[in-house]
Design a protein that fits this description.
With about 450 residues, the chain is of the alpha+beta class. It is built from 10 helices and 25 strands.
Length: about 450
């Protein structure tokens, strides 16, 4: 590295980074119904405008790509080194101790929806550009920070980017974990439906890619004994539950624990616990049987004939949403399958386990996994930068169940922004970011871009 002292400069810029992050957090940038010129709704379009305004104020070239995404860049040349962050968020949900749309600082910790996933990383990437420009190193490649607006709900923003912009030479998305993600499991998304259920209604969860943490279910007192149900619920892992027995109906309010769909065993599924309790209490119902035999509490896909794994990890299954509409109950299913399996193989494996007399499951979409060898130039460059800054050689690049922009933008992997051992409550209440981690991200990214410029 040059004589330019990156660490000292980051210390000087920390307050500016926090102020700029505050500007992004105030936007509720959950995808909503499209509006003219706003393909993902007003929130994502407004936060993109704000991010580009920040970048513009820093003197970077900025481009808005039809409010699907945008970018800021420095440098020149044919090659492009990219950092691909996203500005959209999952719904705030409940359980917060601060306003999720007001950046709140408590000592050395920042709270707010998106501070870790992924608005903080977007700010870290912008300040990486600033440091690279100030360092005085030759910028014979373009260094580009891309802001996406649809990562949480489909990544159509990156599909649009591929249609209208030049491809990246190499880069990373700061939307995973250090010291790098060299493989991402494949996605299999399905929906299970009831056929003829006695359950009056069942509704819970808020997104498909998080554990169903809260669920309200109503059944008839003629179909299950309320005392048996109370006993069965007491034996579940639910954080809390409440039963109301009135006018011949039993209403169950179950509270579990949210977690990302790629790690469902870290959460407590309120719908799954409720279904297990209904079965244990003696309720004879077709969808209770179907749910428990196909989805259940195990999260391993056994009910669909796909309890599989490889050297990089096992398959996981998550039920994120349950809802009742027109007398039918549906349950969303988010499966992350091992990197050595293909989309075609997965469709073949589940094909004989989707329907019986109690229920039916439809396959919505299947995506192939992503995998780069750990010794590839891309992975090695990023890992070397991480080690150079942190001196951590214990942790190695990994394969995860989460999905990132790396599946949509060729030549990149996920690299940070979360550090191994940290729990930033991503997709949960009280999402947080340690200021020390924000500063470390910028230092690592500055050196990582240098390494990529050398390698490519």
């Amino acid at each position: 590295m040059s004589d330019f002292n990156v660490k000292e400069r980051i210390e000087m810029l920390t307050d500016d980074m926090i102020r700029d992050l505050e500007k992004l957090v105030k936007y509720n940038s959950v995808q909503s119904d499209p509006l003219p010129g706003m393909p993902f709704g007003e929130g994502p379009a407004m936060v993109l405008k704000e991010a580009l305004k920040i970048a513009d104020g820093m003197g970077f070239e900025t481009v808005n790509l039809d409010n699907y995404c945008g970018y800021a860049q420095i440098g020149q040349g044919k090659e492009i080194i990219g950092m691909v962050a996203h500005l959209d968020i999952v719904p705030a949900g409940d359980g917060w101790h601060t306003d999720p749309f007001v950046l709140t600082r408590k000592k050395d910790t920042l709270y707010g929806r998106g501070v870790s996933d992924d608005k903080g990383a977007a700010i870290a990437s912008l300040y990486t550009l600033k440091l690279l420009r100030e360092s005085g190193i030759p910028l014979d490649k373009r260094i580009r920070v891309i802001f996406g607006c649809n990562e949480e709900t489909g990544s159509k923003c990156m599909k649009h980017y591929n249609e209208v912009e030049e491809p990246l030479t190499a880069g990373f998305t700061p939307d995973g974990e250090f010291p790098g993600i060299h493989g991402e499991k494949g996605f299999l998304r399905m929906t299970a439906f009831s056929k003829d259920t006695k359950i009056i209604s069942m509704n819970g969860g808020f997104v498909g890619n998080a554990v169903c943490h809260k669920c309200t279910t109503q059944v008839s007192e003629n179909d299950v004994d309320v005392n048996c149900l109370k006993e069965a619920l007491s034996k579940t892992d639910l954080i809390s539950y409440n039963i109301e027995h009135r006018d011949g109906k039993i209403t169950i309010e179950a509270q579990g624990k949210s977690a990302h769909a790629s790690t469902p065993l870290l959460g407590i599924n309120a719908a799954a616990c409720t279904m297990k309790a209904l079965e244990d209490a003696g309720m004879q119902d077709s969808f209770v049987r179907y749910y428990n035999s196909h989805i259940g509490l195990s999260c391993d896909g056994a009910g669909y004939g796909i309890r599989i794994g490889d050297e990089y990890g096992d398959l996981t299954l998550n039920n994120g949403i349950v809802k009742t509409q027109d007398g039918k109950i549906s349950a969303s299913i988010d499966i992350r399958y091992p990197v050595t399996y293909s989309a075609e193989k997965m469709k073949e494996l589940v094909s004989g386990h989707l329907e019986d007399e109690d229920g039916v499951t439809i396959v919505n979409d299947v995506e192939d996994p992503l995998f780069y060898p750990a010794d590839s130039p891309l992975v090695k460059s990023l890992y070397d930068a991480y080690v150079e800054v942190t001196k951590d050689t214990e942790h190695k690049p990994m394969v995860i169940g989460g999905g990132t922009y790396a599946k949509y933008i060729p030549g990149i992997i996920a690299f940070g922004c979360e550090f191994t051992g940290s729990d930033n409550h991503i997709h949960d209440a009280d999402e947080k970011l340690e200021i020390a981690e924000l500063k470390a991200q910028v230092e690592i990214y500055e050196y990582a871009v240098r390494k990529l410029m050398e390698a490519y």
